[in-house]
Amino acid sequence: MSDNQQITKYLFIMNQLNPLAKFRNPFGNQEIEIQEVLYEGGGTPMLRLRIRERGARFTVFDIDPVTAKYWADEMLKWATPLAEAGGTSEGS
User: Fold this and answer.
1) What letter would DSSP give residue 1?
2) What is the pLDDT of residues 38-52, one digit of tens each?
């Protein structure tokens, strides 16, 4: 298979991106997008976190459902008491 055929083959692996959320971090002004990635060939759907910093730099994570749940649980453990108290972690 030629290099061009191999490249073309990989361009069509990703079948669908489903947008789930898009928001801005007010403290760093990053634009954050959360998308579900479904692959044409099947397999595990992935969660894509796409962070755009200052209009030019991108950071992209594709994570599996188990990692996404762990990450979400850890973030909730940290954020819940602070959000309920209306405060931040500054000074603690």
Assistant:
1) -
2) 988 889 999 999 999
